[in-house]
Amino acid sequence: MSNEESIEQVVDTEQTAETEQVVNSPSDKAGNIISLLLSLKENNPKVFFGAIGGLVILLLVLMMSGGNEAKLVSGPVIKNLAVGQKYVLKSANSYDPAATVRLVGVPGALAAYDDTEEADRNAACQHIPQGTPVSVLELQDAYGTKNAFVKVQMEDGECKGKDGWALAIDVQ
User: Fold this and answer.
1) Alpha-carbon distance 108 to 166, whole Å?
2) pLDDT band of 52, cuts 50, 70, 90
């Protein structure tokens, strides 16, 4: 082997190693992918935009498929109340143990409840503490809901013997 041949082999080996390093670098691979996509866009736009649409649809399907576990949200439930039975008042919309349950003279008046007037807040036997035992006197349907309102009579406390209407969900 001559000197020139061995120099050519060394030069070829160095060029091959440099070429492999350049081709294998991540930035060059990304550049090659981008150039491939751009050439696909110019040469065959239907395939390019179809592939993008397919990826978007696949992404949407993956985002919308939430799994098989159906989680139920539980909350206060209206009991099957019976006239003559004893229950207690419990505010379904409050976690505060000091919250009161509103009693009114007419079932539909609860929808128009406004406690901004001072006389309304201080009236006797309108705001009953939670846990007060009551007896169910009458049930009233409203707004397409069976037994939405309950006429109750207080069994204990300073309002013992008085009656008023409450929401059925507040009688537990």
Assistant:
1) 10
2) very high
Residue 134's pLDDT is what? 92
Which has more pLDDT, 35 or 116? 35
Half-sphere exposure of 79 (CA within 13 A, CB side): 15
Which one-letter amino acid corresponds to residue 47? V
- Cα distance between residue 50 and residue 48, in whole Å: 5
Q: What is the distance between the alpha carbons of residues 111 and 108, in angstroms, rounded to a whole number?
A: 6
Closest CA to 131 of 82, 161, 86: 86
* Residues forming a β-bridge with 149: 140, 167
Phi, psi angles (nearest 5°) of residue 97: -65, -20
Q: Is 67 left (phi over 0), alpha (psi -120 to 50) or beta?
A: left
